[in-house]
Amino acid sequence: MSKEFFEAVKMLEAEKGIPADYLYEKISAAIVVAAKHDYNGKDIVHCDIDEEKQKIKVYVRKNVVEEIEDPDTDLTLEQAQAIRKSAKVGKTIDIPLKTKDFGRIVAQTAKHVIRQGIREAERGQMLQEFRSKNQELVTAKVERIDPVTGNATLEIGKNQTILPKSEQVPGEVLTEGQTIKVFIVDVKEGGKGPKIMISRTHPGLVRRLFEQEVPEIYDGTIEIKSVSREAGSRTKIAVYTKDEDVDPVGACIGPKGQRVSNIVDVLGGEKIDIVNYSDNPAEFVSAALAPSDVCSVEILDESAKTCKATVPDDQLSLAIGNKGQNVRLAVRLTGWNIDIKPESGFFEGLE
Known about the structure:
Helix content: 25-40%
Oligomer: single chain
Low-confidence stretches: none
Mean pLDDT: 88
Distance between the termini: 83 Å
Strand content: 25-35%
Number of helices: 11
Radius of gyration: 33 Å
Largest sheet: 5 strands, antiparallel
């Protein structure tokens, strides 16, 4: 029995990645809890697990007394000496118990506590693993798509978590068995285990993709100052470098556009505007309105961060974008409220 027990623990350690010492501690506690039922819950049961010798020792420690006050905890000298001849009044004696004598109910109790301990360890491991990856990009495998909610169950490492439909890229169709990139937004400890918030729409996903694809960002030569994103449609990213010999936008685009193209592929064709960051608000706003040309940017109120951008008449629609998307993303990217005016001052053909 002992040999099988220790082999089972080793198997659990290998399969679940839970340290054997942790399991022995939980199993020992479970056996004690179970055995105490036979002694009205008195704290006199002990369990020693020796992995090296592959032995489990369960025993009751009782007091040797002249007169019994509590039959659960006391033994007379005569009773004690029948077990151990050297027993003396005022001392304690350890009485071995056989685990097979615990009975069915006690054994079930022990199994329940052991299972609970294993679940706690798994939750603890899951929390630790995800905390180490918080605000990072991870690769996940799509296990299942809920046909009603559209939520996707993903496998990340040895753990499973849910990618809600609201955090999936609009128009993107996920399939079971598919491998995707997700961004871990936050990790919190909940009553039923860790709560992992993951996303495919978060701007952090684009930021991490650029860090992976562009060595100059990874090594700190180029800094990503801000990202604004409407997932599945368009992203704007502002980059900056102190190194005069490095073109930050060109480095992010890559030779023949390969770097940004790789990122666009991962994002399923999402358009990406890469612009130069500037400490000069007018220059930054002008760059953020790409791909449209900008004639000038006038700062209206610096404290309220409001400005007016003047664009060529034929660039007005491009500056505003489809349903206002281009200017909306530029506002988020820069943190400035941008009022766009045509160079002529007329809004002909526009509502």
